[in-house]
Design goal:
59% of the residues lie in helices and 15% in strands. The chain is α+β, with helices and mostly antiparallel strands and 831 residues long. A hairpin with a 2-residue loop joins strand 6 (153-156) and strand 7. It comes from Nocardia farcinica.
Length: 831
């Protein structure tokens, strides 16, 4: 062990300290990649963890829950029916709804004395303040996060309640982050206008009872009027709704690690070049290849470990910031108040990914020297067999590239509809591009040399240098290639997707005015507008038409969806894109329209029948249409507005679509509409509605843009490393040139010409592959975002190619200046 430590200290630690710039660069890019991964885990761990804490805190000992299909709940009589099922020890009724109050968005909880059977986190606090709660008319117990004091009045909807006491304590503060009020069932029902309605019945079974038999009995008495499942179903539905964004961000983190691997590869190649004399001598005196390779891999593992550890803190900070920047429409679908919570596995996984990436990249670099004899290791760059790419390796790379492309295209053609298959197809496509480039390494190096030769006398020397180190040139070129390809793919695919989303949501921007209880960047799911709002708006002068509509979060099967109640004239694609017969069936309540992703999840197609659970019982509806429509959660469905009102006990409307009479300006009409809309209502134009959708999509695309910036940053550092490696490999050669009379300007021009050759070829290659990748991504988007995306090449692609050349030149400046300032005597003395 002592020998191992001494060897690592002398040959690895000392070299890392001497060349600390390269070491710090490697650690820095691994830090950025690890931070991104930790942030991704933190974001989604927070969203699902918040729901888990709320569910576990309220459910207590309950093993089953009867929950509402929509926010309208179900009849209160269901509680007595479930309590009578054999094996049920307690059936605890509950009202639980997040509503706007004078203290902000607040979770209102109402229950009765039976809640003591749950043994939940609320029980000790409730028992201690039960007297105060009972003695105060319309009294509530306020959570510690609301900042209320005993005796204060709190407005809930159009009613006011009195704070009878304030709950305090660690667990009570963590429950929904303290933003809740607890009261009796009757007070909660009156405050919310939900007489004889419940949102939940939590069931505690008798000791020794058969859980499956109890569940079957509960399902039988509920008879489709509510959802019967484990209490954790709420958290599962939240996770399902976030899986698209989670998948995209994890793919982005993986891409960041791939680019970081290229930088580690180039950094280790620099280390090998600088230590070639030492390594060859060690081999000559009996050093084993396995030992020397293990030392290099251990060095890479330490770099990965340091980078991963350093990335933990910035990853946590970025995750905390990103929680507040998530699309409002996405957070709106999460029942619990979101608070940052980092999963226990986040940092260990980030550390493991960093170490594995570093070791894998270093293993490729180590192969260059440790597979040759000591005599070959002493050979100049370009002469050793380690510097050349053998024919069998090029043939194998070409075979892998063709196979990967074939599998990727097949996966896209099969339209399997699973995110994992789409991700695999995209990964195979990118991998095929890299293997194809490796197969034609010689041609790429020759092309770079041809470009470099255009730079005059300095270019001639640069061309010769490029041809002597094909592996290094390939690695540098692939860095530029990936930077440009990722830039073209991400920016182009985001632009295509945003256009497709705009097209899929219909003509919302052509509607003159919208009225809803929520702002334009949120889904107008609740609360419903006052019953007379539509008639009052329609009576205003200048109004041509008012179309009512409803949206609600609902459970269909086990999926959390957005359910639309639509009327004739609606611009929603779930109605407007249907043929007249299907529209008539929807309005008449004889059919249902589904978004494509929901139809795929449920395993139904147009013409099939679908059972829909409602508070009034199960309804059997034929699927009259399947529509390509952007889904914020796991799908959308549409039925007639009148059926939505009757079946789900949701009178009124949550949104009004207003068309102005000819010649009436929407801005003028908006003032009149605001005068008859409740103060907490929102009036906005069609353009503002579209801008709200755009904003949500752009917020989601911010993750892709972050990946793009990380890739470009890592590419710049990698170029700095690889071109610095070129100077190190030719240190003696450059010294001889300077001794023979070559000017500093000539040496500077040589390095810059080399960078131009690599940048032009790598940038052009990345431009072409990026355009193909954008097209390929657009083809798999229907399986990810559930809508058709048309390929549209952007006008900025040439700018990206020029940017690649600029990036190459920028990365070449430090090593070029270093080469120009080379000390002749020291350079000739090297080796």
């Amino acid at each position: 062990m002592r020998t191992l430590i001494d060897r690592w200290r002398l040959f690895s630690l000392r070299e890392s300290a001497v060349h600390r710039g390269r070491t710090l660069a490697s650690v820095a890019v691994m830090t950025v990649s690890a931070a991104f991964l930790v942030a991704v885990f933190g974001i989604f761990g927070s969203l699902t963890g918040s729901v888990h804490r709320l569910v576990d805190g309220l459910a207590g000992a309950a093993t089953l829950e009867v929950s509402g299909i929509t926010d309208s709940g179900f009849p209160a009589t269901v509680r007595a029916e479930t309590a009578a099922v054999p094996g049920v020890a307690a059936a605890v009724p509950m009202v639980r709804s997040v509503v706007p109050t004078s203290a902000g968005q607040t979770l209102v909880l109402g229950t009765d004395a039976g809640a003591t059977a749950l043994a939940s986190v609320l029980q000790p606090a409730v028992e201690s303040q039960l007297g105060a709660l009972v003695s105060v008319p319309d009294g509530v117990l306020a959570g510690p996060g609301l900042g209320l004091a005993t005796g204060e009045r709190l407005r809930i909807g159009d009613r006011s309640v009195t704070v009878a006491g304030v709950l305090t304590g660690g667990e009570l503060g963590r429950l929904n982050e303290g933003h809740y009020v607890l009261t009796s069932l009757a007070v909660a029902q009156r405050a919310l206008g939900r007489a004889d309605r419940l949102d939940s019945v939590l069931i505690v079974t008798e000791p020794g009872a058969d859980e499956s038999a109890v569940r079957a009995g509960v399902e039988q008495v509920v008879a489709g009027r509510a959802v019967v499942a484990e209490p954790t179903l709420r958290a599962v539905r939240t996770g399902n709704g976030l899986r698209i964004l989670q998948y995209m961000t994890l793919m982005g983190a993986a891409l960041a690690f791939i680019v970081a691997a290229f930088l580690i590869y180039t950094a280790m190649s620099m280390a090998i070049a600088q230590r070639r004399h030492t390594l060859s001598m060690l081999r000559a005196i009996g050093g084993r290849r396995r030992t020397l390779a293990a030392d290099l891999l251990a060095e890479a593992a330490v770099i990965g470990l340091l980078g991963g550890a350093a990335g933990a803190v910035p990853g946590i900070l970025y995750g905390r910031t990103a929680i507040d920047a998530l699309p409002v429409a996405l957070v709106q679908s999460v029942e619990a108040r979101t608070a940052y919570s980092l999963p226990l596995y986040a940092i260990p996984l980030a550390l493991a990914a960093s170490v594995i990436t570093g070791v894998a990249a270093a293993a490729v670099a180590a192969h260059q020297v440790y597979k040759v004899s000591p005599v070959e290791a002493l050979a100049p760059v370009g002469v050793s067999v380690a510097d050349r790419v053998p024919g069998w390796m090029r043939l194998a790379a070409a075979t892998v590239a063709v196979g990967a492309i074939a599998i990727a295209v097949t996966l896209v053609g099969l339209r399997l509809g699973e995110l994992v298959w789409s991700g695999l197809a995209l990964s195979l496509f990118f991998g095929a591009g890299l293997f194809a480039c490796w197969a034609v390494t010689g041609a790429l190096v020759d092309a770079a040399a041809v470009v470099a030769r255009r730079c005059g006398a300095a270019g001639e020397l640069a061309a010769a240098t490029l041809r002597r180190a094909p592996r290094r040139v390939w690695a540098t070129m692939m860095t530029v290639f990936i930077a440009v390809a990722v830039t073209v793919t991400i920016t182009g695919a985001n632009r295509d997707m945003l256009t497709a989303v705009r097209d899929s949501i219909g003509e919302v921007d052509r509607v003159d005015l919208w009225v809803a209880a929520r702002p334009a960047d949120q889904m107008p799911t609740d609360p419903t507008l006052p019953p007379d709002t539509a008639s009052r708006v329609a009576a205003l002068p200048g109004i041509e038409r008012v179309v009512e509509g409803q949206l609600a979060y609902a459970t269909l099967g086990t999926e959390r969806i957005i359910l639309y109640g639509l009327a004739p004239g609606s611009v929603s694609p779930l109605y407007a894109d249907l043929d007249p017969r299907a529209q008539a069936e929807i309005v008449a309540g004889r059919g249902i329209a589904l978004s494509r992703d929901l139809a795929r999840t449920l395993g139904v197609a147009q013409g099939d029948s679908l059972t829909v659970r409602t508070p009034t019982g199960e309804r059997r509806l034929p699927v009259v249409a399947v529509v390509s429509y952007f889904s914020a959660l796991t799908g959308n469905a549409a039925i007639g507005l009148e059926q939505m009102r009757a079946w789900f006990d949701r009178p009124g409307a949550t949104v009004l679509q207003i068309d102005a009479a000819p010649g009436v300006h929407p801005a003028v009409l908006a003032q009149a509409v605001r005068s008859v809309v409740p103060p907490d209502g929102h009036v906005f134009t069609g353009a503002e509605s579209l801008a709200g959708v755009d904003s949500a999509i752009r917020q989601g695309a911010a993750v892709s843009n972050a990946v793009w910036m990380i890739v470009v940053l890592i590419a710049a550092v990698a170029l700095l490393n690889t071109l610095g490696l070129s100077v190190l490999e030719r240190r003696r050669e450059l010294g001889v040139l300077r001794a023979m009379g070559s000017t500093r300007r000539m040496v500077l021009g040589t390095v810059l010409a080399e960078a131009i050759g690599i940048g032009v070829v790598g940038g052009g290659l990345g431009l072409g592959f990026g355009a193909l990748s954008q097209f390929f991504f657009d083809r798999i988007t229907p399986d990810i975002m559930n809508l058709e995306v048309a390929y549209r090449p952007g006008p900025m692609v040439l700018g990206f190619a020029l940017g690649a050349i600029g990036l190459s030149l920028l990365g070449s400046l430090p090593p070029a200046v270093r080469a120009a300032r080379l000390n002749i005597i020291e350079a000739i003395g090297t080796e």
